[in-house]
Amino acid sequence: MDVDQSRSNSDSDSGASFDSLDFPELVKPNARIVKLNQEVIDGLQAALKHNPEMNLLAIFPKDYNERRRGKRKATAPGEIRYKKLPPPPPIRPPAPLGQRDFCVDVIALSKTPIVIHSLSDEASAFLASLLEPHASFKTLLDSPENLKEAIKQMLAQPEKLWEDPIRGVVLKCNDNLAVKVVRGYNDPTEYTSMQYLAEHAPDIPAPKPHGFIKLDTIHVIFMTFIPSVTLEKVWADLTDRNKTSIQHELNKIFLK
């Protein structure tokens, strides 16, 4: 095999023949292909500098094989155009534990409110008062935007009776009304249970329902405010006699 044959093989896609691998000193690099590869590498590096997460397949020259085989004219310097993809969105670290505010999250992501169960006069009056001191119920309920704004103002109330950054919050509206704002995931059981007790067992000391609004998966449940402490908080300090008395009271309620 002569040198000319080896050189002709260097122009092929394989770049070198079996014989040229045995005699690398006889093979001269193809300047055209070397230049092409360098242009492609420079372009890819420039794209990666702009966006380190760039999809290289999306910007790799589609005519690379044709140009490598010499079937397409080489591109003039500076003429290569690589598709620039937008930079990746910034990674937002989660808020440290104890610093998230459920109400702030709801306000930021709030959707158009949907009234599932009508608001009582007291709940309507409370929400209307957050917009204007003398706003009418009709003005509030006839405008979803007004209702949404009233709920936002309500969520800014400072008096929180209970709060969990993930699950929800309970706010005191006034001396007679409270509101529970929780993630409901299309489960209205809590509200319908209060409705059932109010209709069929009104003597049970449970909150009375005052209206139910949905903001996407967020449930806004108005109910009677009953000032008290939870049994969980005081149970350890109760005497056996107190605990037995509570048990008897609960039996009377649930065994009716």
Which terms would index this structure?
256 residues, alpha+beta, 2 domains, six-stranded antiparallel beta sheet, 12 helices
Percent helix: 40-55%
Write down how many β-strands occur, each being a DSSP E stretch of 2 or more residues: 6
Radius of gyration: 36 Å
Count of helical stretches: 12
The main sheet orders its strands as 1-5-6-4-3-2
Task: Give, in order, the helices and strands.
Answer: HHHHHHEHHHEEEHEEHH
Mean pLDDT level? 77
Structural class: alpha+beta
Cα separation of the termini: 106 Å
Number of separate domains:
2
Query: How is the biggest beta sheet arranged?
Result: 6 strands, antiparallel
- Low-confidence regions: 5-21
Shape: elongated
Report the portion of residues in β strands.
5-15%
Give a description of the structure.
The protein has 256 residues and is an alpha+beta fold. It has 2 domains: 3-68, no CATH class; 104-249, no CATH class. The chain contains 12 helices and 6 strands. It has a 6-stranded antiparallel sheet with strand order 1-5-6-4-3-2, sandwiched between helices. Helix 7 (121-131) crosses helix 9. The radius of gyration is 36 Å and the shape is elongated. Mean pLDDT is 77; it is low at 5-21.
Secondary structure layout plus pairing:
Layout (H helix, E strand, L loop, with lengths): L2 H7 L8 H5 L8 H20 L5 H4 L4 H5 L33 H8 L4 E4 L3 H11 L5 H5 L2 H12 L4 E5 L3 E5 L4 E7 L5 H12 L8 E7 L2 E7 L6 H4 L5 H15 L2
Antiparallel strand pairs: 1-5, 2-3, 3-4, 4-6, 5-6
Helix pairs in contact: 7-9
